[in-house]
Design a protein that fits this description.
The protein is mainly β and about 130 residues long. The protein contains no helices and 11 strands. The strands form 2 sheets. Strands 2, 4, 5, 6, 9, 10 and 11 form a 7-stranded mixed beta sheet that branches. A hairpin with a 7-residue loop joins strand 5 and strand 6.
Length: about 130
């Protein structure tokens, strides 16, 4: 049974840091592009970042998080990470990881992702 489970969420003050993890099980996720998305209360789900399949040599980020967030993957452990620095109140949301076999050009489209985790809450206080 293929499954993704996020962890590492919590509450942090403005300017603080947090690292989220996404553990995959039930299969090998090396052939999947792995993405992070977030959804704040009353708002639509939005793209955060993605890392390319296999070596992870390519990444892409939303403009709102560039320079602050870093996505990485450990294929040996089947774990995806999201390092978040310089956090702001508008980063508050439920963060979810996802996996897709679609082409790179579809990397920002949640409709193309096959597997999703349940999400982990991140709250940034002012």
């Amino acid at each position: 049974q293929v499954q993704l489970v996020e962890s590492g969420g919590g509450m942090v003050q403005t300017g603080g840091s947090l690292r989220l993890s996404c553990a995959g099980s039930g299969g090998d996720f090396r052939p999947y592009n792995m993405g992070w998305f977030r959804q704040a209360p009353g708002k639509e789900r939005e793209f955060v970042g993605v890392i390319v399949k296999w070596s992870g040599g390519y990444t892409d980020y939303a403009d709102s998080v560039k320079g602050r967030f870093t996505i990485s993957r450990d294929n040996t452990k089947n774990i995806l990470y999201l390092q978040m620095n310089s956090l702001r109140p508008d980063d508050t949301a439920v963060y979810s990881c996802a996996a897709t076999t679609s082409v790179w050009s579809a990397r920002r489209s949640p409709e193309h992702y096959r597997y999703w985790g349940q999400g982990t809450q991140v709250t940034v206080s002012s």
